[in-house]
Specification:
This protein has 275 residues and is α/β, with parallel strands linked by helices. It folds into 3 domains: 113 residues, 3-Layer(aba) Sandwich (Cobalt-precorrin-4 Transmethylase, domain 1), CATH 3.40.1010.10; 108 residues, Methyltransferase, Cobalt-precorrin-4 Transmethylase, Domain 2, CATH 3.30.950; 43 residues. Strands 3-2-4-1-5 form a 5-stranded parallel beta sheet, with helices on both faces. The chain has a 5-stranded mixed beta sheet with strand order 6-7-10-8-9, sandwiched between helices. The longest helix has 13 residues. The structure holds S-adenosylmethionine.
């Protein structure tokens, strides 16, 4: 059967702050026939908070493949389903992609209902100039796989976004430093929650900062391969203006930024901006 009109909605939900639920997510959850949830108890609480009562079907991460066919059957038979996960956007390091793929194969319309995602929230707060990012999700646990993946990421001229558990944060920061160099990075902890923290610095400084017990959820964003920074003239100009404002001389500025940009280019830019 092709071209079913009743869709599978893929609904983003808050990553901590319940006020981040969107109007559209509310409407879809209220109007669908049933909700498919990573954890029915967790999402049951969200629905209760929203004053919505719906049948809930379970789609746990560890068992997605085995649970999908009865759900596809429901869709094909005209039931509209809304897929949600414990937090954020389904299928982003969360279950959902198998169900979405099977729905597509069966000609069921898939309708994304966008909203919060920890990765996007963290990227939006870096202020880095790369203008693009690579979502790497959770790194493999096995050391050899981990370093192989990091070796693949090393030359990318894009911010690198990782999810990590708080217990492994310090070790992962150390691995990132060892494999990528001591780049600038952001650790975004407990986004949208009461104890939200955005810690910025080199990977080694962040490793020291988070060497003790860490609580909550974290996203790590690491600067891309360094030549990229040089590619954005607006960032260079902002750097030079800031240094001039602090009283640095054009020659000093050219020297300080010589690792990333042509010395002559910076010197001439600094002279021009100084005038
Ligand atoms: N699908 C979710 C999304 O769109 O962000 C991600 C689910 S993944 C299983 C869970 C990971 O997301 C956590 O280990 C953490 O790295 C990150 N995360 C989720 N909520 C977060 C928050 N409020 N603050 C920081 N990181 C968060």
């Amino acid at each position: 059967m092709r071209g079913h009109r009743v869709p599978l909605f893929v609904v983003a939900t808050p990553i901590g702050n319940l006020a981040d639920i969107t109007e559209r997510a509310r409407e879809v959850l209220a109007s669908c026939d049933a909700v498919v949830a990573e954890d029915t108890r967790h999402s049951g609480n969200l629905l209760k908070h929203l004053g919505i009562q719906k049948p809930l079907h379970s789609l746990p991460a560890f068992d997605e493949g085995a649970r999908v066919e009865p759900l596809v059957h429901r869709l094909v038979n005209g039931e509209s389903l809304a897929l949600v996960t414990d937090a954020g956007t389904p299928a982003v390091s969360d279950p959902g992609s198998v169900l979405v793929r099977r729905a597509v194969e069966e000609g069921v319309a898939v309708v994304p209902v966008p909203g919060p995602s920890a990765a996007i929230a963290a990227v939006s707060a870096t202020g880095y100039p790369e203008g693009r990012f690579h979502f790497a999700g959770f790194l493999p646990r096995k050391a050899s796989h981990r370093s192989q993946m990091l070796a693949e990421l090393r030359p990318l001229r894009a911010q690198l976004v990782f999810y990590e558990s708080p217990q492994r944060l310090a070790q992962t920061l150390a691995d990132l430093r060892a494999e990528l160099g001591d780049r600038q990075a952001l650790v975004a902890r407990e986004l949208t929650k009461v104890h939200e923290e955005l810690a910025r610095g080199t990977l080694s400084a962040l490793e020291r900062q988070f060497s003790g017990e860490v609580r909550g959820e974290v996203v790590i964003v690491v600067r891309g391969a360094s030549e990229l920074a040089a590619a954005d003239p607006a960032f260079l100009e902002a750097d030079v203006r800031a240094r001039l404002a602090k009283g640095e001389r054009p020659k000093q500025i050219a020297e300080a930024l010589s690792g990333r940009y042509s010395k002559r280019h910076v010197y001439q830019l600094a002279l021009k901006l100084k005038r």
